[in-house]
TrEMBL record, chains A, B:
Keywords: CBS domain, Kinase, Transferase. GO terms for molecular function: kinase activity. Residues 80-136 form the CBS domain. This is Histidine kinase. It comes from the Bacteria. PROSITE patterns: CBS. Coiled coil: none annotated. InterPro entries: CBS_dom (IPR000644), CBS_dom_sf (IPR046342). Pfam families: CBS.
């Protein structure tokens, strides 16, 4: 949770992810950080109140983002009511992960190692691609 | 809304999209269809009630999806409380779209033509990539 907010934004941008799984100090999945929540910290609040105001800002969006996120941590991006991530172990089938995403309305599930630490993340997009992508 | 649900799932899978914008007969954006909502139709409900049950199904996920979605339309995938899509026109700046995503907590915005018909969709991922991706 002490990860810099700007690094979280970069991971979202580079990783084709709808959100991030935040882990605790022991490496166990703690909660889901939706990507739009990072945007809430990156965009000045007066622009969020009236998005058309953003049009008159004579500054590159990247500069605004870097200034707003400077020195902030993931901790500050957390939603008021954080959602516990849907979690599966390494034996989960594609259908099981799809069922969990459908049930929790989460576009990503955390995959854990036997000791409960985070092994990886499966996104809805990757899952659908795997299920329907090949020859479908 | 008469689009086949299986085609919606394929577009989600192939298009790297967190959801779809559903348009009315006049081509104007009507609502957002979150990807997880399509999964709710694709996965048998007893699996959603207990995702671990999915593990014992001796059938490929793709076969289950095709059977469940067969003959269904996007209309049937719509959430109980559909969300109106955030909409911008072609003059919107990157910061304006980010502000709108932050405000509406939507990972996609609809871009419209001057006549109000849908011109395209910008995803949070594409936007972050554009803002932070180059040399950031």
């Amino acid at each position: 949770m002490a990860t810099a907010a700007i690094d979280a934004a970069r991971i979202l941008a580079g990783g084709d992810l709808p959100g991030l799984i935040v882990v605790n100090d022991a490496g166990k999945p703690l909660l889901v950080l939706p990507g739009t929540q990072v945007l809430r910290l990156a965009v000045p609040s007066y622009c969020q109140d009236d998005p058309t105001l953003a049009r008159v800002i004579d500054e590159a969006a990247a500069d605004v983002f870097f200034r707003e996120l400077d020195g902030r941590t993931v901790q500050e991006c957390l939603p008021d009511e954080p959602k516990e991530p849907p979690v599966v172990d390494g034996r989960a089938t594609a259908l099981e992960m799809a069922a969990l995403m459908a049930r929790t309305r989460s576009p990503l599930v955390a995959v854990t190692n036997p000791d409960g630490t985070l092994a990886g993340v499966v996104t809805m997009h990757a899952l659908l691609d795997r299920i329907l992508g090949d020859g479908a």
